[in-house]
Amino acid sequence: MTASPSRTRLAWEIGIVLALSIGQSAVYSVLSLVRSLTRDAALADQVTALNPSRADAAIWDAIYRVFDVFFDVALVALVVYLLREPGRSALRRIGLDLSRPGRDVGVAVLLLAAIGIPGLALYALSRLAGLTLEVQAAELDAAWWTIPLLLLSAVRAGLLEEVILNGYLGERLGALGWGTWRILVAVAILRGAYHLYQGPAMALGNVVMGLVFGWVYLRWRRVMPLVLAHTLLDAFAFVGYPLAAPYLP
Hints:
Blueprint: H1 7-20, H2 22-38, E1 47-49, H3 58-82, H4 90-94, H5 101-128, E2 134-136, H6 146-175, H7 180-193, H8 200-220, H9 224-244
Parallel strand pairs: 1-2
């Protein structure tokens, strides 16, 4: 029987994982907001890109995007490996499996409606109030593979963020003795922090999303519906928004 890792080792492990993944994104997002606030232009007059191009040539942009997805999925594999215990599947431990497809899809659709519709309203209102940068989506006609790669990026984001934020941190912070509310607030603030590049209003919206998603995970210990919901949200943002943008005020 393998002994449980010490609190010190768990703390170091969590710090290293965050420095390689979500925590790193949060730091760069905070720096991005600071730069935006120190520019002469108001936040509402500035632009940020959801999926900025990685290269001028379409084929090289696609190659870079594929490797971006690969290395982010490798981070997901890392935290799943770290959660592995003898005789206990890490995937089943955090509910990243297909054992309850109907229920997972149903919960994902409910979360999509509960988060997606208010999120659109928040973006519109915060733009009017000057608290959010203009979020510029990727052009869909760059090449035939643009939309499939954007959908793949949506899957990548769903896996990376929900598995690390809820599956990994939910389990590891619990092992450190953190209570439910402490975990919920910490994870939600971290989610908001790495969206600060869009502006404070959207970061606050993501804090609310983090509280809802975190509660769902800690209640049922299944990350799959969160991955599905997040993937759908990003798919609409990455692909649906550019298609609808010409018809929006």
